[in-house]
Amino acid sequence: MDKTMNQENRKAENKKRTTQRPGTRRLVQLYAALLYNANLKGFIDGHIYTGNLKSVCVPGFNCYSCPGAVASCPLGSLQNALNAAGHTLPWYVLGILALFGVILGRTICGWICPLGLIQELLHKIPTPKIRKSHITRKLSYLKYVFLAVFVIAIPLIYGVGKGIILPGFCKYICPAGTFEGAVGLLQNPVNATSFYQLGSVFTNKWVIMLVIGLACVFCYRTFCRFICPLGAIYGFFNRFALTGVKVNPDRCNGCGLCVMKCQMDVKHVGDHECISCGKCIDTCAQGAISLKCGKITLKGPEIGKNADPEPVIRKRRKTGRVVWGVAIAILVFAVCWFNIIEPAIENANEPAAAIEQVTATSEPEAAGQTAAQTGPETEKQTADTTEPAETKAGEPAEQTADTTETAEAKVGEPVEESPKTQEAAVNLPVGTEIGNLAPDFSTDLIGGGNFKLSDYRGKVVILNFWGTTCAPCVEELPYYEELKVKYPDCEILAIHAKAGAKKAEAFLADKGWDHLDFALDSKEKGIQKLLDVSEALPSTIVLNLQGVVTYKAQAPLTYEKLEALYKEALADPTGKP
Amino acid sequence: MTRNKTFLIVQSVFCALIAGLLAAAALQLYFDGAAKQAEGDLFYYMYTREKAGEKLLPILPLFFTALGLTIAGLILGVKDEKAEKPVRDEILLKDLGSIQNKAVHQTATQGELYARVAIITLAVCMIIAGIINGGLEDVLAKGATICTECVGLG
Fold it and tell me: What ipTM does this complex have?
């Protein structure tokens, strides 16, 4: 009898499953993932969103270096804030986390975390599943270790104690960073040079991401349950959270079915492990559990629903439709804003700023048009349509050989340009690719003075783009200083990226990099955009004696590499196309 | 062994194989590159777009087969049925003891309400303090540049 009933139940379940539509929670998860990543054009053009909304954190786990991300990751921001705790106390990020925690608690994990969605989709792959047990329950405390060590201790010890920027969790573990950030950027051919900086960190993180991904296939929300420090933080607030699953004590008979069927390692409904997914609401035969936001019931037991009178049900449906309507309108507006309206506004403002700040040199005029007049897009077109530099310059091999000899004999001293090499440079297209003549620009220097690129013809110029919040940038700047001390004739301009430029001056005050020239980029100056430098820092451009680009990549450099690049530029009159 | 079980095991093998091959590809590129760099080639890049493409291409057929199997499995309703049954781990159940669901009241207790209001007030004050001390700008600065180390580009 039991066997027949079981079979019937199973058949009914199978039928229900095959005809199942995505539930409300899945739709909300998809909605949140899309809203967090509304900058869809980022996936096409390979650049991240750099607007002011990035000063706000989203509640869920979403890497801010993902090309689609329109706001910041709370965990990355927390590590960065703790890193900088020596000079700026991390009130802002802590306040945001506390606010999210007390309003939503771990409902965030279950409903609006894109990484949670990815984990659940991976778990949908039909394979044998590892069920929760006393071992997984013990392992669930591991995330507090990750929180204490990688998110709090490492950034604090390195940041406050040693002045080194080290977001421990992001750098060594975070699979969201690898998947959304690294893979999201690397898949685009625009970021091909980003591959050059891949090394041990990427290899480690790639393997970690695969292990976590594979584990999620077999074990429900592996990352969320055992590793996620953000979930651990929100877990502290779960008890006080305004939103979450609540129990009606009059109906609960303590059978424990809710806990035994729950896939998370909960001890009771709504504890620090509970992500308020609402599965227990369907499981509870007593109809004792409901998902609430204050006094509003977001999801109630089926019995309650059926028992409600028809007008109440109708009103609830109507409210649901209105809420979804508003949510979809917000999403459509966000997608239009980030992909169409905001870029159009920026483009409309751009030419005026560029012409104001950028001065053209006489050489590019001979080649056709100046960078300032043409803008980056036309530059690219020029580069595409012009024949390779070697063909135009004529006899490049011979020239290189000749100049190499001269350069080797006079390293560190100014080298006079021969008329032949000057002629070669004149015929090159203006652009930012290797072998192009770099577009001219001028900018004010920190500490006074002005830098105009065309004034440094006859010298090797190294343009380094850096940021105070970028660890590899800060690590490599002493190498530039060393190079400048050894080769005083080399001109090095370190340009702080427009983001966070206000703090650069104070940051540089006690560093002692006195031989380098520092400048700040801004939205109005647009140097980064003019030179087509990505948001990935550090980025370096090396120009030879004629101002031709001989090296351009987004990669941190060692002193040896830097010296080799300098010597190469000194020896190479035309650049290497 | 039932057909259901066989399907699940085959799918597991596929998943493990794909993850293993992807990891092996990265490790091979890394160790090859490290060896070349050790020989003194300063500008030898461990990874390039072309090298990555070469390594990923042979894995694609496996990936699409696994994807096809997943879709077929989901349509046919193949799944590990044990996973949906209530957990029967005796040590866990003993550890859980009596389920303390009644502690999670439907409406917040007075103490919880006070705590909630206190935390919200504190959080808002902290956010305002953060905006004043430049914390907001720091978040923007970090978010508006690609943190190469953070995303693993190091």
Answer: 0.92
